[in-house]
Amino acid sequence: MAEALNRTEREFLLNCGICGGRLTDPRILDCLHSFCKECLVIKQEQATKKDVVICELCGTHTCLFNDSIDSLTTNIFVMNIGRVEEITNSNCSFYCTFCEDQGDSEEASSRCLTCGDWLCLACARRHCGTTVTKRHKVVTLDDVRVDPQHRPELRKLYESKCISHDEKLRKFCSKCETPVCSECEHSDHKKHTVIPLEDVVEEVQDNLSNALEMYEVIEECDIEPDMQMAKRFQEVTNKEKTLLQIVHSARERLIQEIQQQATAAELAISQPFEAVKMLLSESMELEKKRSESTQKSRLFCEKLQQEGLKGESVHFRDLLQRVKKGDRKRAQLEFPPEINVNVNELSFPKLFSVSVSEPVSPVEIPRVRSPV
Ligand SMILES: [Zn+2]
Ligand SMILES: [Zn+2]
Ligand SMILES: [Zn+2]
Ligand SMILES: [Zn+2]
Ligand SMILES: [Zn+2]
Ligand SMILES: [Zn+2]
User: Fold this and answer.
1) Which residues form the B box-type domain (predicted)?
2) What does the pLDDT look like over 40-62, one tens digit per residue?
3) Axis crossing angle, helix 7-14 with helix 76-89, rounded to the nearest 10
4) How far, in Å, is the centroid of ligand 6 from the Cα of 188?
């Protein structure tokens, strides 16, 4: 795996599912999920069953030997990957291996990709000049961080060596289920079946392929319910939208109906009232004219009586006699005609007969209907 991990891969592989932080001393369970040893110890102290550990992520039970978390396999793969990530993906400081041996703490600026030593500027110069190490490949940390091609070389540095003999682990002891060096093979594991590491690697690769196939099948099976759920979610969302649309258009319709009815009611009220008002104002006008005409006739009579010369008055002898008779005629004409209007009798129109014709139940979601 030469490619650097992306953010999700880093999180999934290198973070603990219990504390959420970077895995420290990671231990792997039967389900292939890893957790910090310390997190598992704390979890186990609180658990009632001591001989199994239950995965925090998937609930799988993993048996413990001697009720001990120590019996779980150390996940050296994520541990080593984590170390490389720490170098390439962070600004962590590392200290010069040589200076540290001398009791100094000088910050390392390079790393030897052959022997894995961290080197300060001075020690790097020396490392490249000394006969034993002058062919070693020394690169600066800045180079390592920007150039992904150094990643496989960095990974190689963490290839496990025998702790007892500092030799490469090239064989596998089938009895002890552990890789061994040639020294181990001829000492501790002398009577055990020891096979070349490659033979086991092949088997492991086959098992890995099978596991990958299985997980792919599981993931495919997960897609179906996921899609069903998404479909259901969409259905519910659509129904909600439709119902809200029904309510919305019902409200618009009711508002429109109320407005129409109000307009009709206004008309129903104002038409008869306007007609009556017209009649009344016409009568008032006539009444005013009649009153003025009476005043005029009276003024004429008054002035003629006061100031009329005899010769003038006699001119009207015949006319004034007729006025007396005309009084009765005038009474008959009697205008304006009386208008009999009782305000209380003007009817009030029937109003606002609106109703919601689309009842919406709040509990049961009705079948989708187009808004009316
Ligand atoms: Zn943890
Ligand atoms: Zn699990
Ligand atoms: Zn140094
Ligand atoms: Zn070196
Ligand atoms: Zn050994
Ligand atoms: Zn053995």
Assistant:
1) 98-141, 162-197
2) 999 999 999 999 999 999 999 99
3) 140
4) 7
Distance 18 CA to ligand 2 centre (A): 11
If you measure from the C-alpha of residue 85 to the centroid of ligand 1, how many angstroms do you get, rounded to a whole number?
A: 18
Q: What is the pLDDT of residue 341?
A: 62
What six digits make up the tokens of 97?
């291996």
Q: How far is the CA of 10 from the centre of ligand 4 (A)?
A: 29
Question: Does pTM surpass 0.70?
Answer: no
Cα 202–Cα 204–Cα 209 angle in degrees, nearest 5? 95
How many C-beta atoms lie closer than 10 Å to residue 125's C-beta?
A: 13
Structure tokens at 109: 């600026």
CA distance 296 to 202: 136
- Residues, beta carbon < 5 Å, ion ligand 2: 31, 33, 55, 57-58, 60
Model confidence at 271: pLDDT above 60: yes
Contacts of 143 (CB under 8 A, 6+ apart): 150
Residue ranges covered by each domain of the chain: 7-160, 161-192
- Rounded CA separation 141/198 (Å): 33
Q: Tell me, which fold does domain 7-160 have in CATH?
A: Herpes Virus-1 (3.30.40)
- From the CA of 113, which ligand is nearest? 4
The answer, yes or no, to whether residue 37 has pLDDT greater than 60, is: yes
Q: Are 38 and 24 in contact (CB under 8 A)?
A: yes
CA of 255 to the centre of ligand 6 (A): 90
pLDDT for res 344: 64
Round to whole Å and give the CA distance between 349 and 264: 9
Whether the CB-CB separation of 147 and 88 falls below 8 Å is answered with no
Nearest to 79, CA basis, from 26, 141, 4, 7: 26
pLDDT in the model for residue 369: 40
pLDDT at 308 over 80: yes
Distance 142 CA to ligand 4 centre (A): 18
Rounded average pLDDT over 250-263 = 91
Residues in the chain: 372
Ligand 6 centroid from CA 174, angstroms: 7
The amino acid that residue 93 corresponds to is S
Q: Look at residue 372 and give its three-state secondary structure.
A: coil
> What is the chain's percent helix, strand, coil content, to nearest 5?
55, 10, 35
- Residue 60, token pair as written in the block: 């799988």
